[in-house]
Every structure is written in C-alpha cells, then in structure tokens.
Design goal:
The protein has one domain. 38% of the residues lie in helices and 22% in strands. It is built from 3 helices and 4 strands. It has a 4-stranded mixed sheet with strand order 2-1-3-4. The mean pLDDT is 89.
C-alpha cells in the first residue's frame, strides 16, 4: 500500500511563465499568494511540501523526487 501524498503548494509568483503556472494548476497543486520565501522564489523553483520548502531545477524534478520518496 502506498503512502498518502504530502500536501503541496506553490507560490503564485514563483513560476517563470504562464505555461509553468498552468501546469501546476492542471496537476491540482494549489497556489498561495506568497509563501514568505522570497529569496528562494527569486533564485529558482520550489514547492512547499509538508510545510517545508523543496527546491529544484524544475517543478517536474521536485515532484518526481517527492513521488520517489513517498513510494508513489
């Protein structure tokens, strides 16, 4: 039996373009106006997962890593 998926959110200002933002929305990942992590937001891509900031080169990389860790 697989573990439940952790809660994931993204800062509405973090995606670099509309395509990235729409992809996250299409995946059902809720957005937040600001996650209060402006330095990470400026420097690269990140998602808030289980209340912790997880950074990566792309959202796909971050989500793949989380999926592998949770066994899904």
């Amino acid at each position: 039996m697989s573990k439940p998926k952790p809660p994931i959110r993204f800062c509405i200002n973090n995606p670099r373009n509309l395509e990235e933002r729409n992809d996250l929305i299409a995946r059902g990942i809720p957005s937040k106006d600001c996650l209060g992590n402006c330095t990470a937001c400026f420097e690269g891509r990140f998602l808030e997962i289980n209340g912790e900031i997880v950074e990566g080169q792309s959202y796909q990389e971050i989500l793949k890593s989380v999926s592998e860790q949770s066994g899904n």
